[in-house]
């Protein structure tokens, strides 16, 4: 979803040659019409659009369809990246870019959606439990006392890693490697942002976390009794 015709043409042509079935639209209205008649696996979404802006569209997609989203924007400042990731985007791509970069990010996000980035759960334990929570690995769903807590693809992937490697300190670099798998900046804050979102969903007091604790200078640890 982007209002620049040349960019839409570029991405559609390049990604189609890489084997993806791609369509491109110019704004929120065209996107809504398209989604009403077609199913999609992932949305690449510009932030600065005529009419409804990308952040508003992203929030709607998250609440209505739970679609994976890659934000695409000419605004590359840290604050814009943080806002996009806080909204629930799975990744953030800054214009201008080499066409191979969105390809790498698309592959990474789709891998996470398909659970191929992590070892499959054992057939006798598709449910991971901690406290009052149950993480359904096969269906990508989290429940607290029977009530579902919506998770983005990135949140699910990160939470699963933490629960499966509970009581072990995990560095940001190792978490980035496990969740993204492409070349990344040493200033990438996506893990910290995703941890913050998870804390707001699973901690009674996110400012004093019980499960997802920071180990200063080392990374994070998911504290949980067997």
Overview of the structural elements:
β5 and β6 form a beta hairpin. The chain has 8 helices and 10 strands. α6 packs across α8. The chain has 226 residues and is α+β, with helices and mostly antiparallel strands. About 4% of the residues have low confidence. The strands form 3 sheets. A 4-stranded antiparallel sheet has the order 4-5-6-7, with helices on one face. A 3-stranded parallel sheet has the order 1-2-3, sandwiched between helices.
On the 0-100 scale, what is the average pLDDT? 84
Biggest sheet architecture: 4 strands, antiparallel
| Overall outline | globular
Structural class: alpha+beta
List keywords for this structure.
about 230 residues, 10 strands, about 15% strand
How would you summarize the topology of this molecule?
Blueprint: H1 5-17, H2 28-37, E1 43-46, H3 54-64, E2 69-73, H4 78-86, E3 91-94, H5 100-114, E4 127-130, E5 133-136, E6 141-144, E7 147-149, H6 153-164, E8 169-170, H7 172-179, H8 190-202, E9 212-215, E10 219-222
Parallel strand pairs: 1-2, 2-3
Antiparallel strand pairs: 4-5, 5-6, 6-7, 8-10, 9-10
Helix pairs in contact: 6-8
């Amino acid at each position: 979803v982007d209002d620049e015709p040349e960019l839409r043409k570029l991405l559609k042509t390049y990604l189609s040659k890489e084997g993806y079935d791609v369509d491109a639209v110019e704004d929120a209205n065209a996107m809504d019409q398209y989604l009403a008649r077609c199913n999609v696996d992932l949305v690449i979404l510009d932030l600065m659009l005529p009419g409804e802006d990308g952040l508003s569209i992203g929030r709607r997609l998250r609440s209505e369809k739970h679609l994976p989203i890659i934000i695409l924007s000419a605004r590359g400042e840290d604050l814009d990246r943080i806002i996009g990731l806080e909204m629930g985007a799975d990744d953030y791509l800054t214009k201008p870019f080499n066409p191979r970069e969105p390809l790498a990010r698309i592959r990474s996000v789709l891998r996470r959606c398909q659970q191929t980035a992590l070892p499959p759960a054992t057939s006798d334990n598709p449910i991971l439990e901690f406290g009052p929570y149950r993480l359904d690995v096969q269906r990508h769903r989290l429940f607290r006392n029977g009530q579902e807590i919506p998770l983005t693809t990135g949140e699910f992937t990160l939470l699963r890693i933490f629960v499966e490697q509970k009581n072990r300190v995990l560095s940001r670099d190792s978490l980035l490697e496990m969740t993204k798998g492409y070349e990344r900046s040493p200033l990438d804050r996506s893990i910290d942002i995703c941890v913050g979102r998870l804390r707001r969903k699973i901690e009674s007091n996110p400012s004093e976390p019980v499960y997802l604790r920071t180990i200063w200078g080392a990374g994070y640890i998911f504290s949980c009794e067997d």
